[in-house]
Write a structure and sequence with these properties.
alpha+beta; two-stranded antiparallel ribbon; 2 strands
Length: 54
């Protein structure tokens, strides 16, 4: 969403669900450091945007 114009865009792309490895551990650590009581994430989601439709 463009905050100035309040216009939305549709995003298309590839999604990858990551349940282990460096990226998952990095995201899990960031969630823990937020100290908001969230449980450890079950996965990290990696999105590669291939198209923006406005």
């Amino acid at each position: 969403m463009d905050r100035e114009t309040k216009k939305l865009a549709r995003l298309k792309g590839k999604v990858e669900v990551i349940r282990e490895g460096k990226l998952y551990e990095k995201i899990a650590k960031q969630v823990e450091e937020m100290k908001r009581g969230f449980p450890k994430p079950k996965a990290a989601i990696k999105i590669k945007i291939t198209e923006v439709i406005s």
